[in-house]
């Protein structure tokens, strides 16, 4: 109990720096999610009805997600050097699968009868996609984005090991000063704020999802 | 995330490796009006293809990576042209091989612990009277994805000190939630009518659990174990941070010495290990799936 | 209490936790050995709850349940259920087990030996009309809905229980298959003589399947319990009348047959080649203007008007009109009515099994039969009231 209060004190003292570091962390995540969503949605729309390409892209993005994060970050150091960049690239590749998978399943879940009647009314392919398919698949796609966001928040804490920014720095500085005063508080700060950031971003996606889903689809 | 589905069931949103929906029935005759497929058959057809392709594609990727690593490793000229720091960091018999076995030992034990704890816990949380706490656990499991593995490891270091035990325990805690969640989702996904029929024939609760619910939940539980295993192999890469060894050591040496050669060998080796075990998991999922399901 | 009550519910009550109104309120009911008792009533009236109380899938909150006069309200529920077959709408076949394994479930739990179980599986598959060699090793997903429900019934019959509980067993099956399954089930029941409680919300299914029908209202209150004939002939109140709906009289015709009980009339007939004058005399005597022409196998072939029979010549083979509608002896009055509607006159010849002429049935016969059934039912209820 006491130490929790002390930790609050620790946080209060470094309030500014913690928020700034959290914001760094958030920026990493937002960049990753932004790029990954764009790529995965375009890819998903393209491959959904093309069985071979679809299977290939899902398998390959699945392989990405299997590779341990530190190793994946390290892969890109020879190309991008030390810093945020190798981490961002690796995390984009990680985030592809959840979004891609949910995009294709979301599009699958659009009732064929709806598409059929849209066609029957003379809607073109693009119009069908933007007016019918994507809006109907949107909630499922957003669920994928939320999973990707949660995963990325957690993994971004490792970026510090390859010279990147983010809340991992609090964990790292705690580790290097282990045994010294406040080192444990530093680690806890890194962990707690990472999880909090994950939840805040998740709530944000949920809100966006809510306001971008038509009333007819809300549950 | 919204966790509760219809009828207080534990719903969950499509995590990539889980396929809890049953495939549509290709052999259903014309007079079948029951069991209307909830999903369109086309998508299941596609999904089955995806799984099969994944099963074939992964070995190719693994073989290519392995071959590449082998050739690259040989081309480094270790012990001759390569710097001595590199040679010592990448020596197979004293560095890489022991690290590999350490890595696998860590991942193995933590996975075992996860299975031993999460499955019984998942069973308990889908029975009365604990059932109503189930959705809370599933929500936690989802939020837990944001938990930084790195931080968790250090927290356990501060609690338990350095060493293998600490690593194994930290990993087990981290990977517990996916298996727990999948156990619950799998058990909960068993059709009520099937359970009702079992009970109606006079099976005890235990018999219904062991003969019906668990066998039918096997695919989903296995998927959870596979996820846990991959998480553990990944997190074992960080074990070096708290003196637990593993292949992460080589990567960290590469980072420290700023030698791309060391980095590449270490990370490729880790990737090969992870992909291989994931593939084994996928094969197991395919063959341990009960027939008729 | 009737001595052959196989199942007896005595003021049974069920209030689900968290609800105030009981789903089943003080229900007393007897099911006789070897009968099919159908529970029928509007959705949510408590039919399933009642059924599930009998095998203690849910525990009663009051009252007693007896099987064979043994109080089973507190016995081990699992063991109890192994003595009772249970079929539900969702069927609930175990998808990871073959058809044979599914059927073997209860026999195995009861410790039957392997040979006996195997023999039983084949017997039961045959009973429900599935070829054992074809279906034994299939998985449930390899069956059609109708086949799956047959297996469901076979599985419930697994250990030869004396009692079967069936909750809308044919509810999810298309009408044509359902009709077939109902008929097959009735013919199986003819041999097996199980004591069956059958739940449906479809009054027609109830009429077809039930030896007796219990019409349930809210909270599983019995509004009327009786044979289908009597319920159709004499619905005790508006609730029951509304529930059986339009056409109850017509439905009642299903239960009376064209045989000795419906007094049939003779009819003037003549054979081909016979001297018509005698026939004309017979027609005069019977007060009709028609004669029924029979061929040499006594099959009725044509209706011939008396006016065609003047002049003493033999009947030409195309005089009068062809007999288009015939009823066989033992057919239901419903079928008889149908035949009469097809024929020009409100009369139809009745033939024996070999097709030979027996007599005729007229609309007035149906009329009488209906009135008699109603009268009987009314008297029955009057008597009931008098004794109670
Ligand atoms: N597990 C339960 N908990 C609370 N109430 C229940 C439960 N099961 C049923 N009920 C309630 O009890 C009443 C009777 O339900 P029951 O399922 O027996 O009806 P039913 O006659 O079988 O209806 P249907 O024809 O729709 O199957 C209903 O009002 C229902 O809402
Ligand atoms: Mg019901």
TrEMBL record, chain A:
Keywords associated with the record: Membrane, Transmembrane, Transmembrane helix, Transport
Chain ranges of the ABC transmembrane type-1 domain: 22-205
Transmembrane segments: 26-46, 58-82, 88-115, 136-162, 185-208
GO process terms (BP): glycine betaine transport; transmembrane transport
The keyword rRNA-binding appears for this protein: no
InterPro entries: ABC_transp_perm/SBD, MetI-like, MetI-like_sf
Compartments where found: Cell membrane; Membrane
Signal peptide start-end: none
Membrane-related topology note: Multi-pass membrane protein
GO CC terms, sorted: plasma membrane
Source organism superkingdom: Bacteria
Matching CDD domains: TM_PBP2
Pfam families with a match to the protein in the record: BPD_transp_1
Annotated PANTHER family: GLYCINE BETAINE/L-PROLINE TRANSPORT SYSTEM PERMEASE PROTEIN PROW, OSMOPROTECTANT IMPORT PERMEASE PROTEIN OSMW
Similarity section: Belongs to the binding-protein-dependent transport system permease family.
Listed name of the protein: ABC transporter permease
UniProtKB/TrEMBL annotation, chain C:
Keywords (A to Z) from UniProt: ATP-binding, Nucleotide-binding, Repeat, Transport
GO MF annotation terms: ABC-type quaternary ammonium compound transporting activity; ATP binding; ATP hydrolysis activity
One Pfam family of this chain: ABC_tran
EC number: 7.6.2.9
Domain ABC transporter, chain residue ranges per copy: 7-244
BP GO terms, sorted: glycine betaine transport
Gene3D superfamilies, sorted: P-loop containing nucleotide triphosphate hydrolases (3.40.50.300)
Keyword Repressor part of the UniProt annotation: no
Keyword Magnesium applies: no
Gene Ontology CC, one term: membrane
Annotated SUPFAM superfamilies: CBS-domain pair, P-loop containing nucleoside triphosphate hydrolases
Family from the record: Belongs to the ABC transporter superfamily.
Name of the protein this chain belongs to: ABC-type quaternary amine transporter
Source organism (scientific name): Phycicoccus avicenniae
């Amino acid at each position: 109990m006491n130490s929790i209060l002390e930790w609050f004190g620790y946080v209060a003292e470094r309030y500014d720096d913690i928020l700034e570091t959290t914001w760094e962390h958030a920026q990493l995540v937002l960049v990753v999610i932004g790029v990954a969503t764009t790529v995965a949605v375009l890819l998903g729309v393209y491959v959904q009805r093309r069985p071979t390409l679809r299977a290939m892209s899902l398998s390959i993005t699945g392989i990405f997600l299997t590779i341990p994060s530190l190793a994946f970050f390290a892969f890109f150091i020879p190309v991008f050097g030390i810093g945020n960049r190798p981490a961002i690239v690796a995390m984009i590749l990680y985030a592809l699968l959840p979004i891609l998978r949910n995009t294709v399943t979301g599009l699958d879940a659009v009732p064929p009868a709806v598409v059929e009647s849209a066609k029957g009314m003379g809607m073109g392919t693009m119009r069908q996609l933007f007016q019918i398919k994507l809006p109907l698949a949107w909630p499922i796609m957003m669920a994928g984005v939320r999973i990707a966001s949660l995963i990325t928040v957690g993994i971004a804490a490792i970026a510090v090991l390859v010279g990147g920014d983010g809340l991992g720095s609090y964990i790292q500085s705690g580790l290097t000063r282990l045994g010294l005063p406040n080192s444990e508080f530093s680690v806890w700060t890194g962990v707690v704020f990472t999880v909090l950031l994950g939840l805040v971003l998740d709530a944000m996606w949920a809100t966006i999802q809510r306001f971008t889903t038509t009333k007819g689809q809300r549950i | 995330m919204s966790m509760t589905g219809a009828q207080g069931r534990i719903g969950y949103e499509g995590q990539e490796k889980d396929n809890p929906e049953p495939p549509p029935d290709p052999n259903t005759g014309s007079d079948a009006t029951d069991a209307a497929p909830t999903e369109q058959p086309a998508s299941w057809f596609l999904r089955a293809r995806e799984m099969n392709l994944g099963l074939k594609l992964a070995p190719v990727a693994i073989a290519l990576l392995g071959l590449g690593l082998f050739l690259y490793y040989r081309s480094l000229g270790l012990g001759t042209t390569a710097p001595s720091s590199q040679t010592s960091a990448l020596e197979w018999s004293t560095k890489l091989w022991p690290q590999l076995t350490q890595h696998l030992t860590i991942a193995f034990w933590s996975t075992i612990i996860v299975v031993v704890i999460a499955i019984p816990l998942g069973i308990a949380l889908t029975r009365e009277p604990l059932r109503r706490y189930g959705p809370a656990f599933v929500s936690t499991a989802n939020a837990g994805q944001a938990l930084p593995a790195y931080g968790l490891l250090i927290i356990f270091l501060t609690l338990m000190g350095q060493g293998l035990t600490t690593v194994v325990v930290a990993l087990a805690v981290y990977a517990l939630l996916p298996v727990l969640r999948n156990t619950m989702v799998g058990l909960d996904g068993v059709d009520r009518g099937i359970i009702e029929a079992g009970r109606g024939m006079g099976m005890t609760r235990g018999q219904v659990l062991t003969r019906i619910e668990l066998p039918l939940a096997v695919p989903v539980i296995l998927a959870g174990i596979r996820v846990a295993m991959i998480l553990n192999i990944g997190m074992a890469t960080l074990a070096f941070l708290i003196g637990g060894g593993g292949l992460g050591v080589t990567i960290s040496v590469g980072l420290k010495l700023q030698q791309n050669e060391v980095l590449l060998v270490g990370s490729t080796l880790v990737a090969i290990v992870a992909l291989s075990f994931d593939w084994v998991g996928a094969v197991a999922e395919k063959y341990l799936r009960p027939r008729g399901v | 209490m009737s001595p052959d009550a196989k199942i007896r519910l005595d003021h049974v009550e069920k209030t689900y936790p968290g609800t105030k109104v009981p789903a089943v309120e003080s229900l007393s009911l007897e099911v006789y050995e070897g009968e099919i008792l159908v529970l029928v009533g509007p959705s949510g009236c408590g039919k399933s709850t009642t059924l599930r109380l009998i095998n203690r899938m849910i525990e009663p909150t009051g009252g007693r349940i007896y099987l064979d006069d043994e109080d089973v309200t507190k016995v081990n529920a699992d063991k109890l259920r192994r003595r009772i077959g249970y079929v539900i709408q969702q069927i609930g076949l175990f998808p990871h087990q073959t058809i044979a394994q599914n059927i073997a479930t209860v026999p195995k739990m009861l410790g039957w030996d392997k040979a006996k179980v195997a023999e039983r599986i084949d017997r039961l598959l045959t009973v429900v009309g599935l070829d054992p060699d074809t279906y034994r090793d299939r998985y449930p997903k390899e069956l059609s809905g109708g086949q799956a429900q047959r297996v469901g019934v076979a599985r419930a019959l697994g250990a030869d229980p004396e009692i079967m509980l069936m909750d809308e067993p044919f509810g999810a099956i298309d009408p044509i298959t359902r009709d077939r399954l109902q008929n097959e089930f009735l013919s199986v029941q003819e041999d097996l003589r199980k004591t069956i409680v059958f739940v449906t919300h479809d009054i027609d299914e109830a009429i077809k399947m039930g030896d007796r029908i219990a019409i349930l209202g809210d909270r599983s209150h019995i509004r009327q319990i009786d044979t289908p004939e009597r319920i159709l002939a004499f619905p005790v109140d508006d609730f029951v009348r509304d529930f059986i709906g339009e056409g109850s009289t017509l439905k009642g015709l299903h239960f009376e047959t064209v045989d000795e009980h419906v007094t049939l009339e003779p009819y003037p007939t003549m054979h081909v080649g016979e001297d018509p004058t005698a026939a004309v005399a017979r027609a005069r005597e019977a007060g009709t203007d028609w004669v029924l022409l029979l061929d040499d196998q006594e099959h009725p072939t044509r209706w011939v008007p008396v006016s065609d029979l003047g002049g003493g010549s033999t009947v030409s083979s195309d005089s009068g009109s062809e007999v288009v509608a015939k009823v066989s002896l033992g057919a239901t009055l419903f079928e008889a009515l149908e035949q009469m509607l097809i024929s020009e006159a409100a009369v139809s010849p009745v033939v024996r099994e070999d097709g030979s002429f027996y007599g005729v049935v007229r609309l007035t016969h149906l009329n009488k039969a209906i009135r008699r059934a109603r009268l009987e039912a009314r008297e029955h209820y009057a008597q009931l009231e008098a004794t109670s």
